Amino acid sequence: MTDTAQDTLPDVVTVGEMALSWAQKELARGVREKGGNNRGPDVEAYLANVSLPPGEPWCCAFAVMAIQEGAGFLGVPARIPVTGSCLHLWERSVNARKMSPKVGDVYVLQHSPNTGHVGIVESLSDDGLRVAAEISGNTFEDRGGRAGDCVARHAGAPELTHGGRLLGYLRF
Q1: Which CATH superfamily is domain 13-170 in?
Q2: In this structure, how many other beta carbons lie within 10 angstroms of the beta carbon of residue 73?
C-alpha cells in the first residue's frame, strides 16, 4: 500500500463514538419529558428498551440505548448489559471498566447505595485526562444533576456537574 492510500483510510470508529453521535442527535432533537415526571414518548421508548415502566428514572436507559444504537450502526453486538440501573450497569460491566476517560465512554456516578447517574463522554480536556463535556439524559439543562427532565450537555467533570462519586468509565 502506498503512503497516499494509507492517508485516505478512515480513522477507526468505535461503538462509543457512534453512541455519542446518536446522543448528540437526541440532544439536537430537544428530547424532554412530556406529560409528567419521567414520561413522554422518547423517555418511555428508552425505558421500554430496558424493560422499565413509564415513570422510572431514565439516564441509564438513555445510555444503554445510545450504546445499542452505536453498535447497530457498526453492525456489531452491543456488549452493554440491558439495565435501567446505573449501579447494576457498573456491577455487570467488569470487563468494560476503565479509570481514565475516552470520548464515547459511559461515565458512572454513585449518589447513594442505590442511586447513581450515567452519561456519555463528549470531549476531553486538552491533556486528555479529564472529561471536558458530556451528554446525559434525565438531567437538568441549566445545572446538571440527576432526576431532571431532558437530554443535556454539560461542561466539566461529571462528578462536579451532577454530584456523586465517580466510579469510573465503561468502554463498550
Answers
A1: endopeptidase domain like (from Nostoc punctiforme) (3.90.1720.10)
A2: 15
**Bridge partners, residue 131, by sequence:** 124
Confidence of residue 5 (pLDDT cuts 50, 70, 90): very low
Place of cell 457498573: 90
> Left if phi > 0, otherwise alpha if psi is -120 to 50, otherwise beta: which for 134?
beta
Cα 1 to chain centroid distance, Å, stands at 38
Residue 128's contacts (CB-CB under 8 Å, 6 or more residues apart) are none
What confidence score (pLDDT) does residue 143 get? Answer: 87
Q: How far apart are CA 112 and CA 101, in angstroms?
A: 23
Q: Does position 26 have pLDDT exceeding 70, yes or no?
A: yes
Which cell goes with 94?
A: 467488569
